[in-house]
C-alpha cells in the first residue's frame, strides 16, 4: 500500500512518460517527413522536366522562376508559343528559352538619373 498511496502507479508513470516523449518527438518527426517529401517532390519534378522537350505550365514556371500565372499570361498574349493536347497546355523547352532571352533588362538605362 505504501507505493500506490504515495504517488502514481507504475502504469500512470509509464503513460505520462510516453506522452511526454511523444510530445517531444512528434514535431521532430513531422519536420523530417516534410523535408523528405519536399526533397523527393522537387527532385522528381526537376528530373522529369530536364528530360522532356515539352513542359507543362507548372514545369515551365518552375524552370524559369516565374509564376504559372505569368506563363499563362504570356501564352494568352501570344508572347510564348504553346500547344494544347487534350486538357494540357504544353510549352516547348526551346520556345521557353527563346521567350526568356527575348527581353533582357538593360540595367544602365533603367537606373540612370
Properties at a glance:
Multidrug-efflux Transporter Regulator, Chain: A, Domain 2, 2 domains, 6 helices
Textual characterization of the structure:
- The chain is mainly alpha-helical.
- The chain has two domains: 8-51; 53-102, Orthogonal Bundle (Multidrug-efflux Transporter Regulator, Chain: A, Domain 2), CATH 1.10.1660.
- The protein has helices spanning 2-6, 10-51, 57-64, 68-76, 93-102, 107-111; strands at 54-56, 83-85, 88-92.
- It has a three-stranded antiparallel sheet with strand order 1-3-2.
- β2 (83-85) and β3 (88-92) form a beta hairpin.
- α3 crosses α4 (68-76).
- The longest helix is centred in the first third of the chain and has 42 residues, at 10-51.
- The model has no long low-confidence stretch (mean pLDDT 80).
**What structural class is derived from the secondary structure elements?**
mainly alpha
The averaged pLDDT comes out at: 80
The order of strands across the largest sheet is: 1-3-2
In percent, how helical is the residue content?
55-70%
CATH topology of the largest domain: Multidrug-efflux Transporter Regulator, Chain: A, Domain 2
User: What form results from the Cα inertia axes?
Assistant: elongated
Estimated radius of gyration:
27 Å
Write the layout of secondary structure elements.
Layout: H1 2-6, H2 10-51, E1 54-56, H3 57-64, H4 68-76, E2 83-85, E3 88-92, H5 93-102, H6 107-111
Antiparallel strand pairs: 1-3, 2-3
Helix pairs in contact: 3-4
Brief overview:
With 113 residues, this protein is mainly α.
Amino acid at each position: 500500500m505504501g507505493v500506490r498511496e504515495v504517488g502514481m502507479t507504475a502504469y500512470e508513470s509509464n503513460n505520462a512518460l510516453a506522452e511526454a516523449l511523444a510530445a517531444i518527438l512528434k514535431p521532430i518527426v513531422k519536420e523530417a517527413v516534410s523535408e523528405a517529401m519536399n526533397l523527393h517532390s522537387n527532385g522528381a519534378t526537376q528530373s522529369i522536366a530536364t528530360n522532356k522537350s515539352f513542359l507543362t505550365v507548372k514545369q515551365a514556371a518552375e524552370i524559369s522562376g516565374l509564376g504559372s500565372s505569368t506563363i499563362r499570361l504570356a501564352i494568352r498574349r501570344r508572347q510564348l508559343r504553346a500547344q494544347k493536347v487534350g486538357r494540357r497546355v504544353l510549352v516547348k523547352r526551346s520556345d521557353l528559352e527563346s521567350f526568356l532571352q527575348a527581353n533582357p533588362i538593360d540595367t544602365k538605362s533603367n537606373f540612370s538619373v
